[in-house]
Amino acid sequence: MNGNKKQSGDWKLIVGGILLIIVLFAAIKFIFWGLEQVIPKAPPDVSQSVSASRDVSAAQSGQESPSFCVHCGKALPERFEWGQFCPYCGEKIE
């Protein structure tokens, strides 16, 4: 008889565990929703202003940054400038 009591209580324990998981998941979602409402979002044009300032600085220097290494021919990063070393072959780009 003790075995039957444990089996009848097991399903209640399983359902209770599932309900606990659902409640905790909903609580976490609610907390993050509240944080999104409180914390202001960054303006979407931040990346555009950074790229515009980079273009202005390149135009002011009179030299465009190279796109490819003159020694190995591989594509260089966007922020690469003349006088730096190639990250692939190690040669100085002048």
Q: If helices are DSSP runs of H or I spanning 4 or more residues, what is the number of helices?
A: 2
N-to-C series of helices and strands: HH
- The count of DSSP E runs of length 2 or more, i.e. the number of strands, is 0
Query: Mean pLDDT, as a whole number?
Result: 76
Termini distance? 89 Å
Tell the overall outline: elongated
What structural class results from the helix and strand content? Answer: mainly alpha
Approximately how much beta-strand content do the residues carry? under 5%
Q: What value does the Rg take, in angstroms?
A: 30 Å
Helix content: 55-70%
What does this structure look like?
The protein has 94 residues and is mostly helical. It is 56% helix and 0% strand. It contains 2 helices and no strands. It is elongated. The protein starts with a helix and ends in a 33-residue tail after the last helix. The relative contact order is 0.07.
